[in-house]
């Protein structure tokens, strides 16, 4: 397949997938198919593998390749699989990119190196060009997450330069809270480029500024809530859209009272998908924390909401 700008744009909710692990922190690849089935049952429209949510930076290069293969196999062409290949070593990132192309990933994505901070657009384009050219037949999305990479390069300028130098550039995963910059990115690019939202608690605002797709962590556990935000917005039922977005915010606020990713993995287990703990430095919840998490989510109505029920118990 010739890459890129002609490939279909991403749409809907794309889950930033968690990495199933055994209690000792080893990969538990046997659970990947169950996780994929759970997500597709929630009408997830894509999978973003080995990102921040999936602890990609805590995995070895070999483990990331094994995990990418497991998700591509489990998805079996039912939804796009985007493999995050960013690495502090650009040579490792290139190896991961080449591997992702060889297993048939729909697209690759990459953070920039983060130990040595990137402060200007030209350097960022240089780095991402190194990664993208290792998979010359696969669409490429830059992963902008300045809170973790420390790179605050202006994204509209990056996209302008990258469009000229990265033939496989397909778009951007925008994980920041600056709706004005997100809007500027969409306005600064051609219709061929895909700017995807990455902040779950602000999905409604992103829809209002033109988002067609979103990638996020809490779509693993609360996709039905976000689907109602999208459906209500599409129907111009803005009161209902705000109601369901607020419920998503309430869920995230509860999750934020605990170590976030271990807590989200714990909720997946409550939903019947045993993804296990996180690796250090993220760790796991104590039994006391687990009980408190379940109680707090029950108190706000999360488990009812995620079954498609409102506070009166009316079905979706």
From TrEMBL:
PROSITE patterns referenced in this protein's UniProt entry, alphabetically: DHDPS_1
Signal peptide (residue range): none
Keyword field: Carbohydrate metabolism, Cytoplasm, Lyase, Schiff base
Any Pfam family the entry gives: DHDPS
Transmembrane segments: none
InterPro entries for this protein: Aldolase_TIM, DapA-like, Schiff_base-form_aldolases_CS
Major site of localization recorded for this protein: cytoplasm
Subcellular locations according to the entry: Cytoplasm
Family: Belongs to the DapA family.
Name of the molecule in the record: Dihydrodipicolinate synthase family protein
